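Quick illustration, no need to memorize.
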Amino acid sequence: MRLLFLILLSGFLVGFGYAFDPATQDDSQALVRHFKKPAKPLPPFADGKFEPMQGETITLMGGTDMYRMPRGKDLEALLYLAFPDKNLVIRSIGWPADTVYRQQRPMFFYMEKGDTKEGSVPDQREKIEPGVFILQFGRMESLQGLSVLPRFAEVFEKLLGELKKISPRILILSPRKFTNNGPAGEFAEERNETLKLYAKEMETIASRNGFLYRDSLADFFDDKGVEVPVSFLEKVAQKRSLWTQYYRPTNWAFLFGDRQHVPSSRDHRDANQRWFVEELKKLPPLIDQADQAIWEEAKKVVK
């Protein structure tokens, strides 16, 4: 009886447009599809020095630590202030639970082909300009232990190789250490010993491929004497909030997912109008304005 119920339920869902199985969407290297193809090859970093180009886009990638970076040191704010005259465009695509093995995204997220139901369109958002890629992985992966370190290294290097086809300007940031705080704090020392070997492997991969590797944020900014005023952090937070609305929009299924065909995805006065899409289009100009405000403020802070 239970088997019959599951069969009937499966047929019911398919009949209502759920034939697409999210598990079949390849998210093993989902980061790669976020970016435009560069018009011409980008140069690697010169002489092993981290030096962004004028107006360059810096994309931050990683799991929970990168996603929650503002709760500790604000990497975005530090980058703006370390290079106040560069007018950098910083975009974080950090996503909780992202690992080198998989960067799971909603159905059809930054994919060329979208839902096949009538009236549906693929993801229409602008892809991110390639420039500098800053990645921070390894912490959560290290919890699997040393037995899978070779597998980790293989997959990580493969992901970096695909990103390198877009831009060789890659910087790997070492994973954050485990602390003694919390209920599992007694294991911090043991976990950090394992993490140290993962970090060493990432540093080796970086060296082998011509990428940069840094142990901490201090390696970037100490020589510049950067201080971060609260007022500046607020401007960065405002920009980040706007970008998050654009990059991680709510009601994704109704926007570019598998619910675009339903009436609630459309204007009640004109079914041909997609009001979710129209709302999303308002964000890029606001993000640009927020960028401009940050550039102007950064120049005032760093005189």
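The first strand starts at residue 57 and ends at 62.
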